[in-house]
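Consider the tokenized backbone below.
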């Protein structure tokens, strides 16, 4: 597994395939400690050295599991990113309920938006306690869509201070949109962004704003949501495929099926093409894929290592399926 350094922070090196740990927080369904630990073991053996988590993922469960799985490994050999912006506040009154935000865990905490300086420091301190690690290498602002002012004027300066003190190696923002990420790149002192779902084989909106801005500023881009929340995850998109975390419209499914048909002509599956496409852009330093168990890691590695001919991209463009 190769790795790439962040252009502005050459001491932070991300493996070109990153391990997304949301599933370790029981995203959509329960995952056992043993399954998640085996996933990390399999990823490590394959050379994956970049692991991404967040307090949001399972109300801290993902951070606890990831920290436990990595704790015995040489600390200088891997990179961990987590996120700030949602504080976890104890909620004993709802502890018998299930988390309402898609994670199969008890709702014993509630998320509180906070991009203030104090919120950033409290969030990062709590993340270190949950993971048990001595440091976090990359810290992202997590989904600050409705909080631009506070995120840009309070959270980013707080993270810059932590970076200058050597507490964190790199700072950035992670979102499901590209326009505001481009603003962060152009207007704040960040090193890396995580863009989910807006630069994929299906849609390339980030080409209009984020990617040119990042290239001009020397900011690295990590791509997540490469399958558009499931639509591109199978060789043939089913009629009940999800897109943007909900039922995909018929016209979007049809477009994905047309892309899959062209891929098939070149003996490439849709997921293989989805992974290969995003890493062709020069500013993309890593692709993070959510991984739940050892079998998922093995299948993702097989897809990632597939030989995808250059002629495929020209064919997709000629068919009007690629910008």
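A designed sequence for it:
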């Amino acid at each position: 597994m190769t790795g790439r350094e962040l252009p502005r922070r050459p001491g932070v090196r991300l493996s070109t395939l990153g391990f997304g740990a949301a599933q370790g927080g029981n995203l959509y369904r329960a995952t056992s400690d043993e399954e998640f630990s085996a996933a990390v073991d399999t990823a490590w053996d394959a050379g994956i050295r970049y692991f991404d988590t967040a307090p949001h993922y399972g109300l801290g469960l993902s951070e606890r599991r990831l920290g436990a799985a990595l704790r015995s490994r040489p600390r200088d050999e891997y990179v961990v990113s987590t996120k700030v912006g949602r504080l976890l506040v104890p909620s004993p009154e709802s502890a018998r309920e299930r988390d309402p935000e898609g994670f199969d865990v008890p709702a014993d905490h509630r998320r509180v938006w906070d991009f203030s300086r104090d919120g950033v420091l409290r969030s990062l301190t709590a993340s270190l306690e949950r993971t048990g690690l001595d440091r976090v290498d990359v810290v992202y602002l997590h989904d600050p869509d409705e909080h631009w002012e506070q995120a840009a004027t309070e959270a980013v300066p707080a993270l810059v201070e932590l970076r200058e003190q050597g507490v964190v190696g790199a700072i950035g923002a992670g979102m499901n949109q590209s326009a505001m990420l481009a603003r962060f790149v152009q207007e704040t002192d960040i090193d890396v962004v995580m863009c989910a779902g807006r630069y994929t084989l299906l849609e390339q909106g980030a080409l209009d704003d984020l990617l040119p801005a990042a290239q001009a500023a020397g900011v690295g881009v990590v791509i997540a949501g490469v399958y558009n929340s499931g639509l591109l995850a199978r060789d043939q998109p089913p009629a009940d495929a999800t897109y943007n975390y909900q039922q995909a419209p018929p016209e979007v499914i049809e477009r994905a099926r047309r892309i899959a048909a062209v891929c098939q002509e070149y003996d490439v599956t849709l997921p293989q093409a989805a992974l290969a496409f995003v890493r062709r852009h020069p500013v993309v330093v890593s692709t993070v894929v959510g991984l739940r168990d050892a079998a998922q890691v093995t299948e993702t590695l097989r897809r990632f290592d597939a030989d995808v001919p250059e002629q495929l991209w020209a064919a997709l463009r000629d068919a009007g399926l690629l910008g």
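The mean pLDDT is 97.
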